[in-house]
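INFO batch 0412 | record 1 of 1 | parsing
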Amino acid sequence: MNIAVFASGRGSNLMAILNAIKEGKLNARISVVISNNSNAGALEIARANGIDALHISRKQFSSDEDYVNRILCELKSRNIELIVLAGYMKKIPPEIIREYPNRILNIHPALLPAFGGLGMYGMNVHKAVIDYGVKITGVTVHIVDEEYDHGPIVMQRAVEVRDDDTPETLAERVLKVEHEIYPQAIKLFVEGKVKISGRKVIIKNEN
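INFO prediction complete | emitting tokens
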């Protein structure tokens, strides 16, 4: 399966996916990495691994239409079948979501629907979790729709919040879980084991 990864930052989830592919745990190919940030570490990781690395930002275009068309052109020219958001800090335009229905995944550092939505990213999430006093947080992999952190949930895993946690210590443990479950969730799509019924994501059994 041809995958496109969208990332804005250092690319640690991209690296986790690449490692899963190299270790034979994920039968997929990352054909392109797209970033809105020209200095993103994810682009450097892509180049180092012989993957097309593209900086595409809305600021480069005179209209939303031109921006969307450029992204779609890059995706279609590579026969992309699945889009994976890995720390991508821009909302995906609805035209792209409609072009790839139920084929765009995102990972969120909390147990949605808690601590999601506009502005809930990175350390903002972990600070909110600690400030609220919850005992359990975690990681959610979900399908992307036209609302922030709203699409059907594919996979979740819990992470305990410790009494002495800071946003930084909590983020470190949550990130480790992200690196574990994102390749697993992608594998379900690669192997055709995902059935979507409304908001429910049903994982098909081996038999």
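INFO post-check: The radius of gyration is 17 Å.
INFO record closed
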